[in-house]
């Protein structure tokens, strides 16, 4: 009888231990597999930046604009989605040209008083994390266009970074008309190029 009881206890203990192990394993796996970076401070707004560069026949201007909020979804080290909300009120020229910054904020360009944010919403990701083609919907002013950019995602010391290669958008597609040949044919050499260079670098907090 003692022998039978011992076997029953051992079997019961084994089953309970196995069940507990499976539950713990599932939780641990879940924690490792899915990392959600959300807009409540996990995306580091101070160290995340968008760079821009515009061109005209006599030269170019470049600068930065910051994020207002953002989300990234990463699964098994792969980017699965995300949304970057751009704070258009933070447009800065690298040379600190206040007149240019004021003009970029005006209705001639991005009409920031009316359209205080722009967005990029990731809809598709192809390729490996160090060599991805990321497709998303870019919204500037009241126009949304699908664009595809080359980018990578990596983690160093607990900080996840999404970094794009330099890409171009056509400002005329977003009704940014000032001195654009797409809208004004007789500008001669007084035009500003429609194509604007941009790049993303978005970081999470630890």
Provide a descriptive summary of the structure in words.
- The chain is α+β, with helices and mostly antiparallel strands and 206 residues long.
- It has 2 domains: 1-33; 38-203, Lipid/polyisoprenoid-binding, YceI-like (Lipocalin, Beta Barrel), CATH 2.40.128.110.
- Helix content is 19%, strand content 49%.
- It has helices at 2-33, 98-105; strands at 34-37, 49-56, 59-75, 78-93, 117-128, 131-140, 143-156, 159-164, 167-170, 195-203.
- The protein has an 8-stranded antiparallel β-barrel.
- A hairpin with a 2-residue loop joins strand 6 (131-140) and strand 7 (143-156).
- The protein is globular and about 55 Å long.
- The model is unreliable at 1-41 (pLDDT under 50).
Which key terms come to mind for this protein?
single chain; 206 residues; alpha+beta; Lipocalin; 49% strand; globular; disordered N terminus
Derived from helix and strand composition plus strand pairing, the structural class reads alpha+beta
Shape: globular
> Beta-strand percentage?
over 45%
The overall strand count is 10
- Order of strands across the main sheet: 2-3-4-5-6-7-8-10
Order of helices and strands: HEEEEHEEEEEE
Q: What is the fold named in CATH at topology level of the largest domain?
A: Lipocalin
Percent of residues in helices comes to 10-25%
Number of helices, counting only DSSP H or I runs of 4 residues or more: 2
| Overall CATH class of the largest domain | Mainly Beta
N- to C-terminal distance = 58 Å
Average pLDDT for all residues = 83
Can you tell me the CATH architecture of the largest domain? Answer: Beta Barrel
Work out the count of structural domains.
2
Largest sheet: 8 strands, antiparallel, barrel
> Poorly predicted ranges (pLDDT <50, ≥5 residues)?
1-41
Corresponding CATH superfamily of the largest domain: Lipid/polyisoprenoid-binding, YceI-like
Instruction: Report the C-alpha radius of gyration, rounded.
Output: 25 Å
């Amino acid at each position: 009888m003692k022998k039978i009881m011992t076997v029953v206890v051992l079997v019961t203990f084994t089953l309970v231990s196995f069940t507990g192990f499976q539950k713990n394993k599932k939780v641990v796996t879940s924690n490792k597999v899915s990392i959600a970076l959300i807009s409540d401070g996990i995306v580091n707004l101070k160290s995340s930046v968008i760079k821009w560069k515009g061109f005209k026949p006599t030269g170019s201007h470049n600068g930065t604009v910051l994020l207002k909020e953002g989300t990234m979804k990463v699964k098994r080290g792969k980017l699965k989605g995300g949304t970057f909300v751009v704070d258009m009120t933070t447009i800065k020229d690298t040379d600190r040209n206040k007149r240019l910054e004021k003009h970029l904020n005006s209705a001639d360009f991005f009409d920031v008083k009316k359209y205080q944010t722009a967005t990029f919403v990731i809809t598709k990701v192809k390729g490996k994390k160090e060599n991805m083609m990321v497709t998303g919907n870019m919204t500037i002013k009241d126009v949304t266009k699908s664009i595809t950019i080359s980018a990578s995602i990596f983690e160093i010391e607990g900080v996840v970074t999404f970094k794009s290669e330099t890409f171009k958008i056509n400002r005329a597609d977003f009704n940014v008309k000032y001195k654009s040949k797409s809208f004004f044919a007789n500008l001669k050499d007084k035009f500003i190029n429609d194509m604007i260079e941009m790049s993303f670098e978005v970081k999470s907090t630890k």
